[in-house]
Amino acid sequence: MDIEDRLKRLQSLFSYALSGAVAAKARYLSLRGDPSSTPAAVARAKMTWQQLEARKTAIIARMVALEELEQTEAPDQTEALSQEALSQEVACDYAA
């Protein structure tokens, strides 16, 4: 799987994590504001929300690392292409 495909996959995972985190936070805030909610239910809702936030943060970190990897590979590829183009120019000069 190339870097672009991996980034798209991570973006998709981030989108799902974001949606889940927003819904979990809304549920937590709703339970927290409801006087009939048990402390255990509020604690579970908060833990779920925090877990989804942590997952979101981890996905962002993976995306950043992948983008950095892509940037470090790009100059190497560009240099290799430049060297290949130079070799072809030199070969053309000798053929002429």
Explain briefly what this protein structure is.
The chain is an all-alpha fold and 96 residues long. It has one domain (3-95). It is built from two helices and no strands.
Notes on the structure:
Helices cover 92% and strands 0% of the residues. The protein contains two helices and no strands. The two termini are 42 Å apart.
Sheet with the most strands, sense and barrel status? none
What gross morphology would you assign? rod-shaped
Radius of gyration: 25 Å
Number of strands: 0
Q: What structural class is derived from the secondary structure elements? A: mainly alpha
Number of helical segments with 4 or more residues: 2
The arrangement of helices and strands along the chain is: HH
For the record, the count of structural domains works out to 1
User: What level of helicity do the residues show?
Assistant: over 70%
Average per-residue pLDDT, rounded, comes to 84
Strand percentage, roughly?
under 5%
Give start-end ranges of low-pLDDT stretches.
92-96
Terminal Cα span: 42 Å
Please give the structural blueprint.
Elements: H1 3-33, H2 39-95
Features:
mainly alpha; 96 residues
